[in-house]
Design a protein that fits this description.
By secondary structure, the chain is an alpha+beta fold. The protein has one domain: Rossmann fold (3-Layer(aba) Sandwich), CATH 3.40.50.150. 23% of the residues lie in helices and 24% in strands. It contains 6 helices and 17 strands. The strands form 6 sheets. A 7-stranded mixed β-sheet has the order 1-16-17-9-8-4-5, sandwiched between helices. A hairpin with a 2-residue loop joins strand 11 and strand 12. The longest helix is centred in the first third of the chain and has 24 residues. The termini are far apart.
């Protein structure tokens, strides 16, 4: 880990929606200036906080008619993309402030990000969702390794037991995101931290529900949409496209209002997703919340 780059990364800790929107407005001209050039030249030179090397960060070609997703692109030769570097930069900033977060879990295990997380958190436990036939806590031999299965809706971890719970682009694939966040609250100790990403669309006042589970049956409200899944070549179904009401989900799950950690750092290949559509644009945000006690209200299902 290159601590000099990490400590001086451009992480802004934003305490409210208003503060976040002001930061977006301030940075928008720079994003608008830089990102078309990155797309046109299929990448950019930058520093990778994962491998500690400077080099060319490659933006993969897109199919005709598609737009270039810089959040999932700008690939370093070590395998990390823009979103993964954003996570490491922001985690380094959190660990510089909170040095006692050793007992940590992440709902991810087989990606290039996991070893870099474990460099920072040697006791880190990783996992993947391996399907409804598995029980949380099971260890399954798959993809040439032993992989732990955990469901974010019903984990195997004890209540009040963890210093840090992390999940990255998982929440949108869970049928009931409020219940998933409440499960994170349950397993965190008082004073423990929730640290997560999802494709957060600042142009959406309310989240879009694309699919739901009703009486155990999958119902599609919109055409099925899938994101990449490292353990399933068919992808992961998107249940929800999160908007600003995500902040309400976090408090409904028992947390105080979340901090929005914004890490816009072009020198390290961290920019927006560069979506040209207002309702599909995302900034490099991580949601951070600290457990302070018991849930303030019984979590309600997403409507």
């Amino acid at each position: 880990m290159n601590t000099e780059q990490s400590v001086h990364s451009a992480v802004r800790w934003l305490a409210s929606r208003e503060a976040a929107e002001c930061a977006f407005a301030e940075l928008a001209p720079e994003a608008a200036r830089l990102e078309p050039t990155i797309i046109a030249q299929h990448g950019a030179d930058g520093f990778c906080v994962g491998c500690g090397k400077r080099g060319w960060l490659t933006q993969p070609d897109t199919a005709p008619g598609d737009w270039a997703n810089l959040r999932e692109g700008l690939l370093c030769r070590c395998g990390l993309n823009s979103r993964m570097r954003q996570i490491l930069l922001t985690l380094d900033a959190l660990l510089a402030r909170e040095r006692s977060l050793s007992n940590a879990v992440v709902f991810e295990q087989v990606t290039p990000l996991f070893p870099r997380l474990r460099e920072r958190l040697p006791q880190l436990i990783g996992s993947e969702f391996l399907g409804p036939s598995c029980r949380s806590g099971d260890v399954v031999n798959t993809m040439g390794q032993a992989v732990r299965h955990e469901s974010l809706l019903a984990t195997s971890y004890a209540s009040d037991s963890l210093d840090l719970v992390m999940h990255f682009d998982v929440l949108e694939h869970v049928p009931d995101p409020v219940a998933a966040l409440a499960e994170c609250h349950r397993i965190l100790r008082p004073g423990g931290w929730l640290f997560f990403t999802c494709p957060f669309y600042e142009g959406l006042e309310r989240s879009i529900v694309r699919a739901r589970m009703l009486d155990g049956q999958l119902q599609h409200d919109l055409e099925p949409c899938f994101h990449g899944n490292p353990v399933d070549g068919d992808g992961a179904l998107v249940f929800t496209q999160p908007g600003w009401d995500l902040l309400e989900w976090i408090t409904a799950a028992g947390f105080p209002p979340a901090t929005l950690a914004l890490c816009f750092d072009p020198e390290q290949g961290v920019v927006t997703n560069a979506c040209p559509y207002a309702d599909g644009h995302t900034w490099p945000i991580i949601f951070v919340a600290q457990k302070v006690g018991a849930p303030v209200a019984k979590p309600r299902a997403l409507r």
